[in-house]
Structure formats: structure tokens, C-alpha cells
Amino acid sequence: MTDHVKLIADMGSAARTAFAKLSGASDAEKALALRASAGKLRDDRDLILQANRSDMQRAGKSGLGDAMLDRLMIDEERLESIAKAVENVAALPDPVGEIIDRSAPPNGLVMERVRVPLGVIGIIYESRPNVTADAAALGLRSGNAVILRGGSEAIESNRAIHRAMVAGIAAECLPADAIQLVQMTDRAAVGAMLKASGLIDIIIPRGGKSLVQRVQDEARVPVLAHLDGICHTYVGKDADQNKAIAIAVNAKMRRTGICGAMETLLIDQDYPAPGPLLRALIDAGCEIRGDDAIMELDPRTVEASEEDWGTEYLEPIVSARMVQGVDEALVHIAEHGSHHTDVIVTEDQIAADEFMRRADSAIVMHNASSQFADGGEFGLGAEIGISTGRLHARGPVALEGLTTYKWVVRGTGQVRP
Questions:
Q1: Residue range(s) defining the domain that contains residue 16
Q2: Where are the alpha helices (DSSP H) in 73-149?
Q3: CA-CA distance, 264 to 137, in Å (whole number)?
Q4: Residue 411: Cβ-neighbour burial (10 angstroms; 0-12, 13-18, 19+)
Q5: What's 282's domain CATH number?
Q6: What is the CATH number of the domain that holds 154?
Q7: 35 with 174: CB under 8 angstroms?
Q8: Which residues contact 399 (CB under 8 A, 6 or more apart)?
Q9: Phi, psi (5° rounding) for residue 389?
Q10: Are residues 221 and 238 in the same domain?
Q11: Most CB contacts within 10 A, which of 99, 138, 194, 213?
Q12: What is the chain's Cα-based Rg?
């Protein structure tokens, strides 16, 4: 029987040693190692795609849903996107060592706040094998060591991607233990990670509600997370009809299984063209669960339950409600949202500014699809996840979000009176 506590303790100890070695690596060395890893991902294309086909076949037989299968699947185009994301991270400025601010009090001391890595990061995730490369790249670039624990459904894909990433960084003489993958797929390994205080500095879960809830309930290590991606699109009374249709359909249907997908559509009762908006979604293959006013507009809609307003479907389903103005839209979002991404569609700049000022969300948007809630789209190269909390980091978490700071104080012999 595997001793999961010892396994994670050994990995944590190796990660701390690797972290110490990374502190001596230059910006250029880390960037070069990631470019080598991206090249190795391309070199190992056939092996990675074969591993993913094995995962897909097993997941299909187990009854995994379409949205989760979409998250799991890698084809040549997606693999190239994974490699490019690693290269994009390599091209980003290294945040480590950045002077956040500097002050010089009258006593002659010079006080600086300087960015430093978090340390050893445990990342627990489901389905998406691209997270293996994204997390490894972001961790290394920001000077952190990472311990990765992916879902059992993606184990072969994760192993193949991990091998390529490690080969790339080892070829450039950086420590291989800076990127470790937990090879065990049972849940006991997760529990051991959550209790590895002193070995793991922070846990980042990326997956479904049950996973994130477990991490938050059991962790003895700080957690950076979001529970749900219950994203809203509010179509104001002054919205442009063409924009409203294009944004709503894209926000729901481009990829239904990502956390930035629209789950609830709010339509202002004074918006003049709600019917065409609903028809466009239904014609695109979306089921609409609406309130009474919505159901009167199109007989193909079905009645929404109270539970629907707080559901992250991750499928071609959306809940829809008519609301009276910005105030009622914001009340609904506050009661049922998850502080992830919320959108207003309107040509009224005053209403847009009010919505974006008052919406308590990590990301707020005006006249844009919520599917842009992605670290790559924000120019961050890639992301570990999207944080909906208030401490340390919020929104897409990338290089800067994987750092903290220390105070560096320079004197010339001063003593305190």
C-alpha cells in the first residue's frame, strides 16, 4: 500500500531543494528552459496525442459528459496552442526582483518592497491536461517549484506533457524536481497535499465545485481558488441588437465547458428585441430555462427552477430572466453569482460605468463576451486559474499572482533611538 503522506513529504522536500536552486537561476536561463520545453512538447507530439487518445477512450467508456470530454481532448491544434502558451510565458518579463515601491524616510534608510516567489505551490486540477504545461511554465518562470496533481481521467496525457516539460528544463540544467507530477490517481494523495504544511506553501485547486470545496474545507495550507464560474450577461435597455446577439451566443456557445461561459442571461424589461436574442441562442443549440416573462417570448423555452439561478451548467444550457434596470440586475448577480465574470451590453456609457463600478466580480466587462476571461487573452501568457477571492490575487492568476514580496532595507549604520 502506498504511503501517500511519505510520498508527498518526499516530493515536498525535493521541491524545496529545487526552489532553492531556482533562486540562483537568471531570467535568461528560465526563459531558455521554457523555450526548450515548448520544443520538446512539439517533438513529443505523437506520444502526447496517443496518450490523450487513451484517456479519451477510457473517459468515454466511463460516461464522462461532453463538456468534460471537451476539456480533456487534445488535438494537433490544441497541442500547438499549449506549446505556444509555454513560449509566451518564456517571453514575459520576470517579475522576481521587481521593486514594487521605494521610500526614503528622514533617517536615511532606503526601504524597498521587492517581488519574490511564493515557494512550493501545490496545484490540484481536473480534466484539462493543458494545465500541466501552463502551471509548470508559470511556476518555473516566477521562480517557484510546483507539485502537480491532475485528475485520473487525464493521467496519461498529464504524464506525457510532464515528461516533455521536465526534459526541456533539465536540458538547460535547471532542477527537474522544480516540476513534479503526482503519479497516483487516488484521492488520498490530494488529502496528503492539503495537510503538507511546511512543505507546500500554497494550494491552487482548479476544477469542479466538489473538488474546490473539499480543498477549502480540508486544507491546512493557504488556498487560492474559485468555486464556480456563474457568469452573467446583462443586456441593458440601450443595447445594440446585433452586439447583444453576437455577445450572448459567443459567451454561451463558443465553449460551454469553460469557467468563463455565460450561465445566466439577464434582459432588461425595456430592451426592445428580446425575442430575436432568445431565438439566436436556441437556434445555436442552447436550451433556455427562463422565468414567466421569458417563457412568454418563445414557446421553446422551459421553466427555470430556483436552483437554476445558481447552477454552473458547463453545457449548452442557460438560465434567463427579465429584470428592471441596472439595480435589479446587480441584485440578482449579488444573490446568485460567484464573483467570477459579469458583463453588461449597452450603448449607455453611464449605465455601463455604474454596472462596472458596483458589480462585485473579479472581472467586469462592457460590450464583450465573458469568454475573454482567460489569462492568455489578458496578455498574461497563461493562467493557473481565476481567483474570485479578495486576498493576494484576483482574476486571472499568472506570474505576478505567483509572487509575494519582502522588504529590503538599506542603511549606512543607522540605529534606532
A1: 4-225+389-410
A2: 76-91, 130-141
A3: 34
A4: exposed
A5: 3.40.309.10
A6: 3.40.605.10
A7: no
A8: 89, 92, 94, 95, 138, 141, 142, 380, 381
A9: -80, -175
A10: no
A11: 138
A12: 23
At residue 207, the pLDDT reads 78
Q: pTM score, two decimals?
A: 0.86
Q: What is the pLDDT of residue 209?
A: 77
Q: How far apart are CA 316 and CA 70, in angstroms?
A: 13
- Mean pLDDT, the chain, whole residue set: 94
Cβ pair 69, 57 in contact under 8 A? no
**Residue 83: which region, alpha, beta or left (left: phi > 0; alpha: psi -120 to 50)?**
alpha
The one-letter code for the residue type at 262 is M
The answer to whether residues 308 and 397 belong to one domain is no
Are 154 and 22 contained in the same domain?
yes
Cα(8)–Cα(14) distance, integer angstroms: 10
Q: What is the pLDDT of residue 227?
A: 67
pLDDT digits (tens, 9 = 90+) for 14-55: 999 999 999 899 999 999 999 999 999 999 999 999 999 999
Whether residue 383 is contained in a domain is answered as no
Q: State the pLDDT at residue 413.
A: 96
Asked if 157 and 74 touch (Cβ cutoff 8 Å), the reply is: yes
How far is residue 417's CA from residue 414's CA, in Å, rounded to a whole number? 9
Torsion of CA 122, 124, 128, 133, to 10 degrees: 10
Which residue ranges in the chain fall short of pLDDT 50? 1
What is the number of structural domains in the chain?
2
CA atoms within 13 A on the CB side of 279: 8
> Is residue 258 one of the residues assigned to a domain?
yes
286 plus 174 within the same structural domain:
no
415 belongs to a structural domain: no
Are 259 and 131 within 8 A, CB to CB? Answer: no
Residues 247 and 359 reside in one and the same domain? yes
Give me the pLDDT at residue 66, please.
84
Whether 416 maps to a domain, the answer reads no
